[in-house]
Design a protein that fits this description.
Strands 1, 2, 3, 7, 8, 9, 10, 11 and 12 form a 9-stranded mixed beta sheet that branches. A 3-stranded antiparallel beta sheet has the order 4-6-5. The termini are close together. It has one domain. The longest helix is centred in the first third of the chain and has 9 residues. It is mainly β. A hairpin with a 3-residue loop joins strand 7 and strand 8.
């Protein structure tokens, strides 16, 4: 099983940030504190709602009301908002986008990488070729100037 892959955001096709983003965690963190939030409509009526500012977007995730198993990475908003956010297995990959780096936690593709620095312990540095299998985005999501040797995972991604 591949490890989580870490990639600089400038290696990704910029369109994925505009067309493939599923959620911005800052919006959900706002909902947890907002006194006008409505579970029925899954929104609030206040003027403080943050825009999708790409501070912490998630790509390839979905909402669910059912508690995920303990081996799945998930965000727990069940008590406050009535749902969990989990990786979507129908998506080609699931990625947590940070300010500079993205972490690919599940994908149909992998590449061979070196281990990351202490900033991302136990994760693969997709910018450096190595011996560790690490998840990476699909080839269409990587910009044309990057040369990753992506391989398709056959089963169990």
């Amino acid at each position: 099983m591949p490890i989580t892959g870490v990639l600089q955001n400038n290696h990704l096709d910029p369109d994925i940030f505009y067309y493939k983003m599923d959620f911005d965690l800052n919006v959900f963190y706002h909902y947890e504190e907002c006194h006008t939030y409505s579970k029925e409509f899954a929104s609030c009526d206040c003027d403080d709602l943050p825009e999708y500012d790409f501070d912490c977007p998630l790509i390839g995730f979905k909402k669910t009301k059912r508690k995920p198993n303990t081996t799945t990475l998930y965000y727990d908003f069940k008590e406050s908002l009535g749902f969990y956010i989990i990786p979507d297995k129908k998506s080609p990959y699931s990625m947590i986008v940070g300010e500079i780096y993205s972490q690919i936690i599940r994908s149909r593709y992998y590449t061979l990488s070196a281990m990351c620095s202490p900033c991302f312990p136990g994760q693969g540095d997709l910018d450096t070729i190595g011996i560790y299998k690490a998840y990476c985005p699909d080839p269409d999501s990587i910009n044309q100037y990057c040369d990753f040797d992506t391989k398709r995972i056959k089963k169990g991604y």
